[in-house]
């Protein structure tokens, strides 16, 4: 199940599936500020990339920067993944909507796209950042995410951005949102 929209010089695809299986230049991880691994998509990415090597790479980054604030992004190799790189970003924890959650979520997408561009990444895949444990209302998150991807692709930051949704209900919701926004 997937759908593609042409956006300026590139395209955006919305598809259902497991992000760890995608053969793209980079996949984005919905990480935490300590890059400590966890459940959800973060856990799946660690298992598929190889826990030991990915944890070591994350620990080295944290030794250098202390912690990764919400909205920021860093890059590691993809190790055993089909994707060559992993871009780790931290979405906001939903606290009711008055703690700059929309701005932080937008930054997570925009900074991931910018980092991808700096590393000549042409195709990249995103999970629904903050839409799991972090509790972001999905309809709102979809609007922010797709608008940010549209801006980034229009600017030529990457050639293709793929939004990967886990499960058919999420895929349908994001496809409806994409039909409005893209
Ligand atoms: N492929 C694509 N999407 C997935 C996959 C997968 N393999 N697995 C889960 N999802 P979450 P968050 C979807 O909770 O809300 C972690 O413990 C899932 O259905 O992974 O940003 C971190 O360490 C959901 O829609 O991320 C952090 O502590 C989406 O990915 C915290 O969770 C994001 O859900 C981050 O929470």
Low-confidence stretches: none
Gyration radius, rounded: 15 Å
Superfamily (CATH H level) name: Leucine Aminopeptidase, subunit E, domain 1
Distance between the termini: 18 Å
What fold name goes in the CATH topology slot? Leucine Aminopeptidase, subunit E, domain 1
Number of strands: 7
Strand composition percent = 15-25%
For the structure shown, list the relevant keywords:
5 helices, binds ligand AR6, 182 residues, seven-stranded mixed β-sheet, alpha/beta, Leucine Aminopeptidase, subunit E, domain 1, single chain, globular
Fold topology:
Elements: E1 2-7, E2 10-16, E3 26-31, H1 40-49, H2 51-65, E4 73-77, E5 85-90, H3 101-118, E6 123-126, H4 138-154, E7 160-165, H5 168-181
Parallel strand pairs: 2-7, 3-5, 3-6, 6-7
Antiparallel strand pairs: 1-2, 4-5
Helix pairs in contact: 1-2, 3-4, 4-5
The site of ligand AR6 has 24 residues, from strand 3 and helix 1.
Organism: Pseudodesulfovibrio indicus
InterPro entries: Macro_dom (IPR002589), Macro_dom-like (IPR043472)
Protein name: O-acetyl-ADP-ribose deacetylase (Regulator of RNase III)
Q: What's this entry about, in short?
A:
By secondary structure, the chain is an alpha/beta fold. The protein contains five helices and seven strands, in the order E-E-E-H-H-E-E-H-E-H-E-H. Strands 1-2-7-6-3-5-4 form a seven-stranded mixed sheet, with helices on both faces.
Task: Explain the overall architecture.
The protein starts with a strand and ends with a helix. With 182 residues, it is of the alpha/beta class. The chain has 5 helices and 7 strands. It has a 7-stranded mixed beta sheet with strand order 1-2-7-6-3-5-4, sandwiched between helices. It has helices at residues 40-49, 51-65, 101-118, 138-154, 168-181; strands spanning 2-7, 10-16, 26-31, 73-77, 85-90, 123-126, 160-165. The radius of gyration is 15 Å and the shape is globular. It has one domain (2-181): Leucine Aminopeptidase, subunit E, domain 1 (3-Layer(aba) Sandwich), CATH 3.40.220.10. Bound molecules: ligand AR6. Residues 18-20, 30-32, 38-42, 44, 91, 127-134, 164, 166, 170 line the site of ligand AR6. InterPro entries: Macro_dom (IPR002589), Macro_dom-like (IPR043472). Residues 1-182 form the Macro domain. This is O-acetyl-ADP-ribose deacetylase (Regulator of RNase III). It comes from Pseudodesulfovibrio indicus.
């Amino acid at each position: 199940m997937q759908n593609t929209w042409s956006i300026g010089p590139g395209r955006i695809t919305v598809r259902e599936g497991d992000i760890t299986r995608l053969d793209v230049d980079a996949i984005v991880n919905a990480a935490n500020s300590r890059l400590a691994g966890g459940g959800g998509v973060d856990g799946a990415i660690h298992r598929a990339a190889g826990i030991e090597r990915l944890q070591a790479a994350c620990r080295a980054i944290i030794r250098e920067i202390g912690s990764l604030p919400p909205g920021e992004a860093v890059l590691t190799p993809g190790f055993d993944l089909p994707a060559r790189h992993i871009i780790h970003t931290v979405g906001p924890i939903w606290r009711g909507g008055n703690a700059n959650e929309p701005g932080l979520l937008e930054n997570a997408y925009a900074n991931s796209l910018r980092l991808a561009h700096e590393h000549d990444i042409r195709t990249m895949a995103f999970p629904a950042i903050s839409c799991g444990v972090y509790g972001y209302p999905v309809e709102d998150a979809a609007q922010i995410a797709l608008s940010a991807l549209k801006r980034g692709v229009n600017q030529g930051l990457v050639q293709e951005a793929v939004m990967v949704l886990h499960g058919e209900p999420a895929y349908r919701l994001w496809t409806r949102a994409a039909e409005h926004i893209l």
